[in-house]
Structure formats: structure tokens, C-alpha cells
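Now for today's protein:

——
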Amino acid sequence: LLTLALGTLTRTTAQAPAPGPAGPTNITAVLTKAGQFTTLIRLLETTQVGDQINTQLNNSNQGLTIFAPTDNAFSNLKPGMLNSLTDQQKVQLVQFHILPNFLSLSQFQTASNPLRTQAGDSNNGEFPLNVTTSGNQVNITTGVVNTTVSNSIYSDGQLAVYQVDQVLLPLEFFQSSAPAPAPVGGKHKKKGAKVADAPDDDSDDSGNASGAGELIVDQFGYKMVGFSAVVGVAFFMLW
């Protein structure tokens, strides 16, 4: 009887299916399980950045680090701000929360600033993201927002997700565009200046001299009046 029981147990064990491989990493599933990230999940879906994250994680060995703002963080934004963003800006906003490499909490201590995000090159001043550490605390600054990593949500050696209590707003969204150069206008005439009339063909030499004297006075000031008078008297005496 004992032999029969052992044989049955052996056959049952052999027929049991082996545990299946772990399912593919899904950022939406990670955030849903953690809770309080409804707004971020919606942005990941509408911008399709979530699909890009999942594809990258499951088809390459490249790691990612994600800063995940809570629903309260989004609710603390200026009313209507999200709706005022263009579709491209919404994509950039989500990508600004993603680092293209895996960083554990301890690795932030040796990270080089500014950190490069998926939103763009941080060296040109458009999407700067800087971190400093104090013990186990990680401080983040964007030039607009200062916050800290408040919790580690998920980490598997390839994907790290950290909770932040403020939305990381990139400086690019608040850069004021340079004013357009003023149109180049024509030269303004000097106030009070007069333009001498062109002399008639039958004007005598004295008329020409008088006109020239007026023009000189208008261009160089009243100091030339006396000089013009002296020249006129001298010319008359010599004549």
C-alpha cells in the first residue's frame, strides 16, 4: 500500500506544470498596484509614453528610472495648467520624469548633474534636472520646482520607480521668448530743422549764398549765424 501511494505521488508531481516565467514589466501595473497615481497613469496612456516604457523594458537591457508624482502633486498645480499644455508639452512633461538608465537610491550620491532625461538634452538649459543627497534623502530641483524622493515604489535592477510629492515642471515651459526686434524706422528729422528750398535757375549768387547759410545754420546750430554774417559782409566789401 505504501509503495502504491508513493508511486501515485511521483506521477502527480511529474505531471504538475512548472512555474511560468515572470510576466513582462508593465509600468501601468506597477503604478496601479502602488495606488494614488491615477493622473500619471492617464498621462502615460494618452501620450503613449507608457507603451514606449514597456517596450523598452521588455526588449532591451537598458534600465529606466521614473519619478512618479502622486495625484495630490497634480492637484496642487495651478488650476488648468495641464489642460493648457500642448500635446507635445504633455509628452515632454512625462518624459521629464524619466531617466534613461537605472539608478538605485545610493547611486544618486555619485550621479553627475544635470541628469539627462528623456525629454531632451539638459545641458542646453531647457530641461535641467539636478539632484543632491543628504544621507538617504534625495533632493531634486528643476529650476522651477524643488522636491525630494519620498518613497521607493518599485525596483528590480532594471526599473526603479520613486514617488515624488510635486510634479517636476521643466524650466523650458517657463522660458519667456525673446522680444521681437523693433522695426528699423527712417531717420527722424531734427526738431525744428528746415530744409532749404532749392534755388531757382534765375537766382543770383547772393541768393545762393544766403540759402547755403541757412542750411549750415540748420545742420550745425546757431553758432554759425555770426560766421555767416561776417562772411557776407566781407564778400560785399570785396565786391
In short: The longest helix spans residues 205-220. Residues 26 and 55 are 9 Å apart (CA to CA). The chain has nine helices and six strands.
